[in-house]
Amino acid sequence: MERFLEGVSTFSGWLWGIPLISLLVVTGVYLTIQLGFFQFRYPLYMLKQTFGSVFKAPKGKGNITPFQALTSALSSTVGAANIIGVPAAIMFGGPGAIFWMWVIAVIGMSIKFAESVLAVHYREKNEAGEYVGGPVYYMTKGLNMKWLGVWFAFALMIELIPSIMVQGNAVSAAVKESFNGNELITGILTALVVGLVVFGGLKRIAKVTEIIVPIMALIYVGAGLIIVLMNITELPSILGLILSYAFQPMAAVGGFAGAAVAETIRWGFARGLYSNEAGLGTAPIAHAAATTDHPVRQGFWAVMGIVIDTLIICSTTAFVVLSSGVWTGEGALDDPAALTTLAFEQYFGFAGSVLVTVSLIFFVLSTIIVIIFYGSRQAEFLFGLRAGYVMKFVYLASIVIGSVGGAQVIWNFLDLALATILIPNVIAVLLLSGEVKKLKTEFFTSEQYYKKDIKKKSVS
């Protein structure tokens, strides 16, 4: 059994290396070209249509506001990857990995945009009168491949069980480490809190994430910016490190073992893709419920998700770790995951350690809430509304099991299971890229959307 698990781990490690990173990079570049480099051409317009319209009543049909859809989608991406994954990329790929993380974030915007545009375009109403959409719907209605939609729905529904166990374990471990809490009690309390939210339906989930995500992101990023400002004179040299070692190998420094350029690119791409989940097909499930007058307009919100998750939160962690110097400390390579906590502790003492722990707990809690919503939607697609409720109980039980380290053997299959979701989704997005291009052209050439917005601006 041990040899088998080792084989699974080795294979999934290889699969999530060059093969899948190449697939996502090629897909991102192809879609960026296919969609006319829209993320480079319209950044200010997209900002105005998203964050510039937060306090305006959205036009069109939907169940939640576009901002609520964004915070729900962000809940599943903002988490441990942003806080403990970034220092790992620095330790194994060097500071230059951050440059490649930024590059893949900008390229990945086209994938996230395409997924969300398709999700809104092919959405429908369920028995409860809520808008539902995502990969299973654009595979079924757009490609006329219900079998692929069934595959995706079943794979995601099952994959989320070990995923939630891991998240439950992350919460209980953080509580035990910082507050000496009991893992089982933490697991039960977490399940109860999450249950109160997920059984309240889509609107309650949206309201909770609308509050948790912005507050926690602002606190974490704000504290990170204070550290950066305290080291403001170091900023030019940190940017120099990131840019110069993106293209040349870096020699060993203190606790850092050195890195070749190929490793730098691989770790940067991997971190960017893992943190924003472009191509995974989960975020479109949240964006499908948004109130909007055109699929492309909601696609802009999906792009903003990458801006917040990777370009802002991951970059904050990177600057904190690099400016504090903890990455070159003795033994840094032994536990890269602890470097963010060490950096905050260095400047804020025990309060810094607590801030990172509390941020991690809240980010993980919001992640659990939203991925349970994703899983129940898949069960609903496969077996009806009642099955969605049943799966919520299964997922809540998974939190408790995971909190005490239960079923750790299953965790070995997590990355492999993610691949069974990502590959069919990326194929579907590529096959439907012509439809995305058509919708994008319609939005930017119609007097009803982009041209109308531009006219309003020129009049004002």
The gist of it:
The chain is mainly alpha-helical and 460 residues long. It is built from 22 helices and 2 strands. GO terms for molecular function: amino acid:sodium symporter activity.
Which architecture per CATH? Up-down Bundle
**What class do helices, strands and sheet pairing give?**
mainly alpha
Strand order of the largest sheet: 1-2
Q: Residue share in helices?
A: over 70%
Total helical segments: 22
Level-1 CATH class name: Mainly Alpha
Write the element-wise H/E pattern from the N-terminal end onward: HHHHHHHEEHHHHHHHHHHHHHHH
Estimate the mean pLDDT confidence: 88
Distance between the termini: 69 Å
Share in β-strands = under 5%
Q: Roughly how many Å is the radius of gyration?
A: 21 Å
Total separate domains: 1
Q: In total, how many beta strands? A: 2
Shape, per Cα inertia axes: globular
- How can the largest sheet be summarized? 2 strands, antiparallel
- The CATH topology: Amino acid/polyamine transporter I
Keywords: Cell membrane, Membrane, Symport, Transmembrane, Transmembrane helix, Transport
Pfam families: Na_Ala_symp
Main location: membrane
Family: Belongs to the alanine or glycine:cation symporter (AGCS) (TC 2.A.25) family.
